[in-house]
Amino acid sequence: MKHLSKQLGAGFAVMMLVIVGMIALPHDRYIRWQAVKTEAFARLGWIYERVHFDETPIDIAFIGTSHTLNGLDTPLIQRQLREAGVRLKDGQCPHLVNLAVPSYGRDLHWLIARELLENKPVKHLVVEVFENETRQAHALYAHVAEVEDFWEAPILINMKYFPNWARLPYRQLLLGMKSLSPSMFGLKKEFDFSDYDGSDVDNTRLVNVGGQALSPLRDRVMDKALLLKISKQNADKKDLHMLGAWATRFEYAVPHHYLGKILNLADKKGVPVTFLYLPQFGMPPRPFEEDIYVGRGDWLYVNDLLQNTDYWFDEAHLNAAGAQAISQRVAADLRKKIEADSAAFSRDGSLSVMPRGGHSSCQSTVHPARLTIRPFLKPLAQGRH
To answer: Is the whole-model pTM more than 0.90?
Structure first.
């Protein structure tokens, strides 16, 4: 029995050494951010490229889910702000970018915000808000987080804490292999502007990444009766306090933790924040947990537009017409905020509205979006090959 215990102990020690060795394997960060190739999640690779390789400034950045991805035409917002005379202190034109990624998870928003704020002198950050913070962590967090982030992640009511750790050794091994031979895995070893989606990408009409359309045209209007029915069902089954109201701080510990980190880093960098309320259809006009945002930023509400049933592609996402209406409103409201108090809106008061006729014309972004997009390939019906 003693001999068996020693053998088991030695085997466990060897196993732990192998696991630690796998976790310590080096890899290229650019490869890590590219490695997720599934549908619109592949935008993570573009986000890394936009932050690290594209010299085009990022003055106003939008972070959120597919609600922001499909609902905000940032090239349009940028154009309208420029036409309204919004300029930087040096007279240059502002640049906007939409860094939204599908699915909810403040932990992934934190990774994107940190990558952005630590590497670009951002003037203003717009953060999407739902009707309530979502308890779940993002499925892709473990794919792009630093090893240190795994240690720092909250344990309490974090359903992905242990699964993420279990996935880490294999992730590190796979990323090490991909870093040695990126082309074998369809990844880029080095950045190339000839294979780049551009300084900003509009996904309101057509979701696209890497020159490939990932959706049909988003011009469909959801049937009104069906929209109202599903939205009522969603509202009726929403349970904000599965553990009871007394346990709110524990139940929402994960999103609150990462939202706090985003806002604290923005504050440290001197970057003002605006919260943009973009819930699914039929939700209340203000978020349920409004108190957690108090004193951390200004607000943008577009509730009257969100109530228009002609603006919805499905119960959670705006269609192209809805996105155009929302984008025009956001542009107008941002201009008003800048005009009312430039110092409060932008880092060092660096954005202001010039008098009509007193501003120069603007050039387009340094690197335009792709001219051609491969058509959307409709998935085969289930069971067919």
So the answer is: yes
